[in-house]
Amino acid sequence: MKIGFIGLGIMGKPMVRNILKAGYREVLVWNRSPKSMEEVVADGAIASAPREIGETCDVVITMLPNSPQVKEVMLGETGVAAYMKPGAVFIDCSSINPVASQEIAAVLAARGVEMLDAPVSGGEPKAIDGTLSFMVGGKQTVFDAYKPLLLTMGASAVRCGEVGAGNTTKLANQIIVACNIQALSEALMLAKKAGVDPELVFQAIRGGLAGSTVMEAKAPMMIGGNDKPGFKIDLHIKDLNNALDCAHSVGAPVPMTAQVQEILQWLHNHEGGQKDHSAIAQYYEYLTGTTLGQ
Could you give the angle at the alpha carbon of 129 between the alpha carbons of 220 and 124, nearest 5°? Predict the structure, then answer.
């Protein structure tokens, strides 16, 4: 199988490396930044270009920032889709609006190309160790055929429905993550202001009902003052914008999502857009004039 991979950012680069580690030898890559391409070529990937990827690859994978970038790469004037052969498959691992996924799939279907929308959860750490969770939309037969490829990059891959279902599931995931981080920030600041060590609160409650993967990953960062991004605030803003757009279009109430989006936007406006989304805690530190750490 010849694989094309476009988008070698914080997530795409380790994903390519895990495909290579799984034994796939023909992995063609392209990225706007040559440096990222050079890094994965050193690991065994093959530097390429969108046209060559479209013409020669059995499956094309993208990991790009948002809907406009995916549409441009696939459907633009020199987009990959124009060169893909009938029977090829497109797997989009980007987190985009489900409506955009369906629009792209419709264009590809007219060319005889199948599509899976397969966004991921887990951030950079799980991209590096190959334990991402894939949420997938598309035909069952296509999913079954390419699930082994997805599992070279992840620990789980679940088909959630037809094209668009993967990104709808990812939006639900992003709502839950953001609201969890906000609740965790409030709770730890409550403890701090009441004179109780946030670290001890974390240790006491992590094994109970309040415990979560979010808490395990983000509480130590908040308490330690570490805002190095595993998942950037600006990317979470993008995801929640898509969630709000989708929710408004289908009539789903999302008041908690709207509130945490305002906090994220405040952080963006105060030079926090490139920080990890655990920096939501810094909003509460600003409000109280109190830091969570020692």
Answer: 55
121-171 pLDDT, tens digit per residue, is: 988 889 999 999 999 999 999 999 999 999 999 999 999 999 999 999 999
CA dihedral 214, 220, 223, 229 (to 10 degrees): -70
Query: Which of 13, 71, 126, 170 is the catalytic position?
Result: 170
- % of the chain beyond a pLDDT of 90: 95
Closest CA to 279 of 241, 233, 234: 233
CA distance 86 to 223: 53
Residue type at position 169: T
Alpha carbon dihedral 2, 82, 14, 216, in 10-degree steps, equals -130
Separation of alpha carbons 263 and 227, rounded Å? 16
Structure tokens, 7: 């988008």
Active site residue 170: yes
294 pLDDT more than 70? no
> Which residue blocks in the chain are alpha helix, DSSP H?
12-21, 34-41, 50-56, 67-75, 98-110, 123-129, 140-150, 165-193, 198-205, 213-224, 233-250, 255-267, 280-288
Tell me how far apart the alpha carbons of residues 103 and 172 are, in angstroms, rounded to a whole number.
20
CB atoms within 10 A of CB 129: 12
pLDDT digits (tens, 9 = 90+) for 243-258: 999 999 999 999 999 9
d(CA 46, CA 40): 8
pLDDT band at 293 (very low <50, low <70, confident <90, very high): confident
Describe the crossing of helices 280-288 and 165-193 by its angle, rounded to 10 degrees: 30
Q: What angle do CA 32, 103, 6 make, to 5 degrees?
A: 20
Cα separation of 90 and 107, whole Å?
12
